[in-house]
Amino acid sequence: MRVLVIEDLQLKIDELTKYLENDLQVDSITVRKSYNSGLDEVLFRSAEYDLIILDMSMQNYDISQNEPGGDPINLAGLNILDQMYFREIPNKVIVFTMYGNFEEVGVSLFDLHEQLSKDFSENYLGNVFFNGSDDTWKDEMNKIIFNNNILKNNDQDLNS
Questions:
Q1: In degrees rounded to 5, what are phi and psi of residue 100?
Q2: CA-to-CA distance for 123 and 77, rounded, in angstroms?
Q3: Residue 89 CB coordination number (10 Å)
Q4: Domain containing 60 — which CATH number?
Q5: Contact at 8 Å (CB) between 94 and 54?
Q6: Around Cβ 110, how many Cβ atoms within 10 Å?
Q7: pTM to 2 decimals?
Q8: For residues 20 and 63, what is the distance between their CA atoms, to the nearest angstrom?
Q9: Using CA atoms, how far apart are residues 144 and 129, in angstroms rounded to an integer?
Q10: What is the tally of structural domains in the chain?
């Protein structure tokens, strides 16, 4: 399985990468650390991925010595899903967030889930709430991945 992770927080990247490699034996993981680099990857290389794991809030640009990352975008992941919808990019997406509420825009994670399920039903598989103090997020991720046969579909593709 080939996974694109769009996430700007290194702790979440490390935990998610470890989970994907050790628990799911994912073959290939690509990480993009900002809205712009993630969007570029989705628009120009989406066919290379079986699954996209998408943060909902992230920096505009990749942080570097010369670039502080720009302004954070509260619902950057929603913008990426919008672009996928308008461009008919069929990849399946799991939202991976550490926010239960997006207070700046007045949306709870539950409300966001309802909106994404309705507006992006072809792409959106569900959301996983990341809490760095426990591993329950892994159970949620497993439930979404296995209930939607993501790994099974990949095995079928390899055997075709």
A1: -85, -20
A2: 12
A3: 18
A4: 3.40.50.2300
A5: yes
A6: 11
A7: 0.87
A8: 24
A9: 12
A10: 1
d(CA 31, CA 153): 22
| Domain limits for position 124 | 2-159
| Residue located via tokens 């039903």 | 121
The candidate with the shortest Cα–Cα distance to 16, out of 70, 78, 96, is 96
In three-state secondary structure terms, 95 is strand
Sign of CA dihedral 33, 37, 38, 39: positive
Burial bucket for residue 131 (CB in 10 Å: 0-12, 13-18, 19+): exposed
pLDDT (tens digit, 9 = 90+) per residue, 40-58?
A: 999 999 999 999 999 988 8
Q: Is 24 helix (H, G, I), strand (E, B) or coil?
A: coil
Per-residue pLDDT tens over the stretch 104-127: 556 777 888 898 999 999 999 999
Do the beta carbons of residue 73 and residue 29 sit within 8 Å?
A: no
3-class DSSP state for residue 89? coil
